[in-house]
């Protein structure tokens, strides 16, 4: 099964597969089929500005989020584990050191968008 890359030591990344407090974030859970859950995530991300789907397969989504002012690109990945009905994700800045909490806030915003729909 595919794995998400670990977060670097810098504080500009969150991941459901991280084990340290600075980077760890709770995964999403779904009850629908994997295909339906994936569509909910995709539809929710469509409502967010400056996003681009760059890779998709049966269990994986990879998006690029571009910041408005300085055009920084963040990578957001989702991994659907059907055996546990879990969506693991990772959101990380490509450059810089601190993101001032942007990646964590983004993933909590996506959590709110998909809540009750999975």
Write structural notes for this entry:
With 118 residues, the protein is an alpha+beta fold. The protein has one domain (13-114): Kinase associated domain 1, KA1 (TATA-Binding Protein, 2-Layer Sandwich), CATH 3.30.310.80. It is 22% helix and 31% strand. It is built from two helices and six strands, in the order E-E-H-E-E-E-E-H. It has helices spanning 34-46, 102-114, and strands at residues 13-15, 28-29, 51-57, 60-66, 73-81, 86-93. Strands 1, 2, 3, 4, 5 and 6 form a six-stranded antiparallel beta sheet that branches. The protein is globular, with a radius of gyration of 13 Å. The model has no long low-confidence stretch (mean pLDDT 95).
Number of strands: 6
Topology as a string of helices (H) and strands (E): EEHEEEEH
Question: What radius of gyration results from the CA coordinates?
Answer: 13 Å
Mean pLDDT: 95
Q: What is the CATH level 1 assignment?
A: Alpha Beta
- The total count of helices amounts to 2
- Termini gap: 22 Å
Uncertain parts: none
Inertia-based shape: globular
Class from secondary-structure proportions: alpha+beta
Estimate percent helicity: 10-25%
| Beta-strand content estimate | 25-35%
- What CATH architecture label applies? 2-Layer Sandwich
At the fourth level of CATH, the homologous superfamily is Kinase associated domain 1, KA1
The CATH topology annotation reads as: TATA-Binding Protein
Tell me about the largest β-sheet. Answer: 6 strands, antiparallel
Tally of distinct domains: 1
